[in-house]
Amino acid sequence: xxxxxxxxxxxxxLVSCQKENNLKNDPFLIAQHKIGKLTNTVxxxxxxxxYKQDSIVKxxxxxxxxxxxxxxxxxxxxxxxxxxxEAEHEFDSTSTIKNIEVIDTxxxxxxxxxPKGYFIDIKKNYPISKINNTLSSAVVFVDSIGAYFxxxxxxxxxxYKFDTxxxxxxxxxxxxxxxxxxxxxxxxxH
Length: 190
What we know:
12 strands
């Protein structure tokens, strides 16, 4: 009996270590101060070496036709858009990344929260810090992972659709409401 218990204990430890190791090496894992290959200390000049197998497209601030700031789009080698990065300081190659829009659905948290997921994925895995009511979206903040999500007001009851003054409570957002945008912020002021 002692022998079987010892074998089960060792097997459980090995499986736990293997799962933890797989998560550490997952190129699509979102964790505190980390998303895939990026950390909050990566500087812009390092992006070329981090994404040497992928494509990087830099958009310059002031392009009124694209309505963009100093954004950097990351595409995988198949041409799929992965991330949109926003630098802390424009035109500074030593700047770190301030905001990341997570586009590709392969990115996920340990709680399996991912872009285009559902509100229930947020609610069941993370404490909601606050919800802002904007003109077209509910913005859900999850400070524990430095993230915020937008949910289109079309997903909410009609009372919220045209009024930005009404406070939106988490229990008023349907579990089936689709996440429209998934942002990670490494802003030092957030």
